[in-house]
Amino acid sequence: MSRNFKLTLAYDGTDFKGWQIQPQCATIQGVIADAIERVTGERVLPQGSGRTDAGVHALGQVASFALDSPIPADNLFTALNHTLPLSVRVTEAAEMPCEFHARHSATAKTYEYRISRASLCSPFLARYVHHHPYPLDEAAMVQAAKAVIGTHDFSSFAAVDPEKGKDPKEFDNIRSIYVSEWRRDEDLLVYRVRGDGFLHHMVRNLVGTFLLVGKGSIAADALSSILAARNRSLAGPTAPASGLFLISVEYGNAPL
Questions:
Q1: Does residue 167 carry a catalytic annotation?
Q2: Tens digit of each residue's pLDDT (9 = 90 or more) over 88-110
């Protein structure tokens, strides 16, 4: 009888072509599938809570898959971490009810985007931030971030996604955002966003737009009209992948 497993994962996405498996490319889904096969002898395709892009990192990605193997969850945890590259770690492994699915069962996710404001960016930090030492009106960015809280059509911040429509959650571009805020952490300017789901490139497109607000190219109070227009060309460019982290995925009730 098959058993359903949940893995919580942390990874440095710099050297991977994103989550989704691709021929002749190193991907997170691919290296996890390879590791599971080496440990259990079974070839499965772990399903992630979402498809992080090339270069995007995670502290709390979630994957699920079924196994016939009798291996205990604790042993699977240890064996996978011995097998996986050091840039990918399993932080938790648990057996779950058969109906649990990493993506379909998710009720909320939290992302952070990290910008280094230091004049020089340490080589030990550069892979994990977007370095932007130039002048920014951070107060205007804080104001602009509040405009996306609530339930909106985020078409203005969505990239064209060839996979769109394959998941029942993705028939439209309406999403609910519970938290959208900037904070300073010494030389880091950090954007934190929590919502019930995110469109392809949505967080990076929001950050790119907020950066234009900080530069004075877009007014802080223009975010509401950009949202209402549902026109991608009115929003800012896609911010670099290096600064983006999937922080956590929630299941069950997701309180505001």
A1: no
A2: 999 999 999 999 999 999 999 99
E strand intervals along 213-254: 244-251
Domains (range + CATH), the chain: 3-96 (3.30.70.580), 107-251 (3.30.70.660)
Structure tokens at 100: 């649990």
- Tokens 């929003």 -> residue: 235
Q: Quick one: residue 142, left, alpha or beta (phi over 0 = left, psi -120 to 50 = alpha)?
A: alpha
Read off the tokens for 233: 């060309």
- Token pair, residue 250, equals 């929630």
| Helices 73-83, 28-40: crossing angle, 10 deg rounding | 120
Tens digit of each residue's pLDDT (9 = 90 or more) over 229-248: 999 999 999 999 999 999 99
63 dihedral zone (left: phi>0; alpha: psi -120 to 50; beta): beta
Adjacent-strand bridge partners of 243: none
Q: Can you give the pLDDT at residue 86?
A: 97
Q: 18-64, pLDDT tens digit by residue?
A: 999 999 999 999 999 999 999 999 999 999 999 999 999 999 999 99
Backbone angles phi, psi at 3, to 5 degrees: -120, 145
Give the three-class secondary structure for 217.
coil
Tell me the pTM: 0.93
> Are the C-beta atoms of 102 and 50 separated by less than 8 Å?
no
Catalytic one of 12, 15, 34, 53 = 53
